[in-house]
Design a protein that fits this description.
The protein contains 19 helices and 2 strands. It is an all-alpha fold.
């Protein structure tokens, strides 16, 4: 029976839903020149939702003094512990920074309506369900809601060809990955009689023990489909590569919105996918770890290869940042494969967990910091192509420096936040005896650094002819705040990584 404590655990989701409805209502009340306030409404909603997460933490701490634990709700369908809190805050931070990048950056006639920001908040709701879900039905519902909202965001910005073609590819790819998960979940539910991760773990144990001879192949097929769907979700292959439409002026005005949505899709979505993956692989599928670990290794190598090649071949800075998510996912998949196959008390497990948990805040900070800097450079008349950066350092030294910090962190250059995720991944992989894999990782990292040579060469050249400046409101914009916050986190976490390490220990109950 559902009681009030179940709804207390859903407080952040309820607040997001209320403010999503509020965005739709307030949009009808704002005059055209005030449409930018829709972003303010969404940002306030995210802040309130963060307060709801803090309220759950405070309530749990108070009840713990009386010996009462308030972590499980809706008949064990959701679990809200330090792991969920870590990912909740990270997803909400990515959502808030993405909204900041878009705030006050477009003229009133091109400002998005309330439905756009309501979709952002619905996406965050779906992602949070993926994080806290311990029931396959709830996890799949979160996947569907977040992907539907993500498609709506992409579709809003793709009004002309070839943007519509990119939108269709995005929809087909995401429908395919959701279909794999849905069929896999259904097979497990059909053959095990339950959709809880605890029951899935028991079914995996029986498969290993040979107690499910009559339904062995169907259960293994379900496991394989789910694993494939989860890997695709982790990769978050960025088919949201909006190209220039027929109307270049409209493209200029919507550039900040595209950067903000790209930031949301390349940070918050993979973060939630990693939480789902760790629940499924390290809990539900854990008895099968020796079966799926080799496949995770091959998937990690494939992502490293594709991501590195994509980075080297990209000329668009926004798409370069998005495709960099593939390389980070590759390093993290290698760490996940090693920690799954290692002895539970081995240091490789601790290093593997830290590689994933430490890398995720760095991804949010450095990706969104780079996209915010690209947005501000565009406002000063410097285009979004690498060629447009020619001579940019002489015209916008501060912004170019902030962009370089984020890009260097994305490439894993010390002492920045992005370095430590790769460092712990190397420790985990090499410590388990897979030195060749560690060597592959280092080689790919060096190849990726060649892209930075192109960017530096363009920035510090003498001649420059960037794009046209965008007409926006004067004064400080949300992107200004976003770029400084993200850069500060990237630098401070790199110089003083102990904070990220302690955060990882807390999230994974390692202390």
């Amino acid at each position: 029976m559902v009681n009030i404590t179940d709804y207390v655990l859903c407080l952040p989701l309820i607040l997001l839903a209320l403010f999503a409805a509020g965005c739709l209502v307030m949009d009808r009340m704002f005059p055209p020149e005030w449409k930018w306030l829709n972003a303010v409404t969404a940002l306030v909603g995210i802040i309130f939702s963060s307060g709801g997460v803090a309220k759950i933490q405070f309530t749990q701490a108070q009840l713990a003094l009386s010996g009462i634990r308030l972590e499980v709700g809706f008949h064990h369908a959701i679990v809200i512990d330090s792991f969920a809190f870590f990912f909740y805050y990270l997803i909400l931070a990515a959502g808030a920074l993405s909204v900041l990048i878009m705030m006050r950056q477009t003229p009133p006639e091109h400002a998005p309506r309330g439905l756009f920001y309501a979709a952002i908040m619905c996406a965050l709701m779906g992602l949070m369900c993926m994080v806290s879900g311990f029931h396959l039905g709830l996890i799949f519902a979160g996947v569907v809601v977040s992907e539907a909202a993500g498609y709506l965001l992409v579709r809003t910005l793709c009004k002309e060809e070839p943007g519509r073609s990119a939108c269709r590819r995005y929809m087909v790819w995401k429908a395919f990955s959701c279909g794999l998960l849905g069929v896999g979940f259904w097979l497990l539910r059909w053959k095990t009689g339950s959709a809880g991760l605890h029951e899935v773990r028991q079914a995996a144990t029986k498969v290993i023990a040979g107690e499910t001879a009559d339904s062995h192949h169907m259960i293994m097929a379900g496991f394989a489909l789910i694993a494939a769907g989860v890997i695709l979700r982790i990769a978050a292959i960025p088919f949201h590569q909006w190209n220039r439409g027929a109307d270049e002026q409209v493209q200029n005005f919507t550039q900040p919105l595209q950067n903000g949505v790209t930031g949301l899709l390349s940070t918050a979505f993979p973060v939630a996918a990693w939480a789902m993956a760790m629940h499924i692989f390290l809990w539900g599928f854990y008895p099968l770890r020796f079966n799926y670990s080799p496949w995770l290794v091959w998937a990690g190598i494939a992502l490293l290869t594709v991501g590195t090649l994509a980075i080297l071949l990209q000329s668009d800075l926004r798409r370069l940042v998005a495709y960099a998510t593939l390389t980070t996912a590759g390093f993290m998949l290698l760490a996940l494969a090693v920690l799954a196959a290692s002895d539970p008390f081995s240091p490789n497990v601790t290093n593997g967990l830290k590689a994933v948990i430490v890398y995720l805040p760095a991804i949010v900070a450095m990706n969104l910091g780079a996209l915010a800097a690209i947005t501000l450079l565009r406002r000063q008349g410097i285009g979004g192509e690498i060629a447009d950066l020619r001579g940019a350092f002489g015209r916008a030294s501060l912004l170019c420096g902030l962009l370089l910090i984020s890009l260097l962190s994305i490439l894993g250059i010390p002492p920045l936040a992005g370095f430590y995720g790769r460092y712990f991944a190397y420790l985990s992989v090499s410590g388990s005896g897979h030195r060749m894999l560690a060597g592959f990782g280092i080689a790919y990292a060096l190849l990726g650094a060649l892209c930075m040579v192109r960017i530096l060469k363009a920035m510090f050249s003498h001649a420059g002819s960037g794009g046209s400046a965008i007409s926006v409101r004067s004064g400080i914009s949300g992107a200004d705040a976003a770029v400084f916050v993200c850069t500060a986190v990237t630098v401070v976490a790199g110089v003083h990584p102990q904070f990220l390490i302690q955060l990882a220990n807390w999230a994974m109950h390692l202390t």
